[in-house]
Structures are given as C-alpha cells and as structure tokens.
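ENTRY TYPE: protein
WANTED: fold as tokens:
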Amino acid sequence: MNGLEIPERPGLVRVQQKTGIHAAHVVKAMSISASSHGQRSIKEFCLPPLSRSEKEKFQLYITMHYYATESSVQRVEDVHLQEAIRVPRPRKNMIPNRKKLAGELLNKCYNLLKANVDIRMEGAHLCLVTDGWSNIKNDPVINYIATSPTVCFSSSQYLLDSKVTAPIGSRWTSRAY
C-alpha cells in the first residue's frame, strides 16, 4: 500500500495472504460494537426513556406521514429508516411494523382526522362536488368531495367518499329518502 512495507502500514489496514498474493483490506475503526461486549450505549443513559403516550404519539405521526404522502406501508420496515431512528433513540420498537401501521394505527389516525374534519365542517359553508373517472381496471368510480372557502389541513377540499359504481350501461336510479 503506497509503497510502505507491511510493518509500516497504519493499523486500519489489514493484510491478508491468500496463496502467496497480498491483498489489503480496510478495517473499520470500530468494527466491534459495544453491545457485543455487554456495554450499553451512552445515549441510553443520557436520553430519558419515552413514556408510553410519547411513543404512541410518535407512531401516530409516523403513520400520518405514510398516509399523507401515500407511501407504501412496506417502507416502514426499511432497514435504513430503522437505523436512522436508532441514532437519536437506540431502543428498538420505536417504529411500528407494517401490520400495526395498516391496522390499528390506520384506524386511530382515521378517527382523529375524521373528528377534526367533523369539527371544522360543523356550521361551515360547503359545496358538494362529484367527480367521475375510471380506475386501472376501467371500473367507473365516483368521488364525492366537500369544498370549503376556508383552508384547513393545507387544503380546502375533503374527500368524503369514493364509490365503484355499477357496470357501464347501468341506469342511475334517484331515490328520495
């Protein structure tokens, strides 16, 4: 390596001999983790542990991020995201798994958001807009959207419902309730 003899090379370079051929391999300075020696990270002692309610709040914010950005729930189990969260918080189980994200947390977020929308819509002036389109299977779909002159939740529109309608050629039947 750079013309240095083996004894003069820095400690980060390890020489491996294979059938008479010398190959230099860079060794990470901290290749052995502290946890393998039974030591715990200093971060575990410096950071106060999260309470159960703080952890639930964090998971709800993560869940809302996935739904607001329309990201696949599979991505929550990405190794890079988990490692990024472990930098400030070394404890495991901070991020929910995709089953919890798509089940229990989805229901909680939906109920919270629906309650907020209901409060905002109470007594508000609204306009009902319908929009028809076809999905990728060419099934006709109708969206029902309530719009408001005031902006809340970064939008003045609320998707109330989306229905897959009857097959093409069906007749619309209006019923008075």
Remarks:
- Residues 125-168 form one domain.
- The helical segments are 43-46, 52-68, 79-86, 98-102, 104-121.
- The chain has three domains: 1-31, 43-122, 125-168.
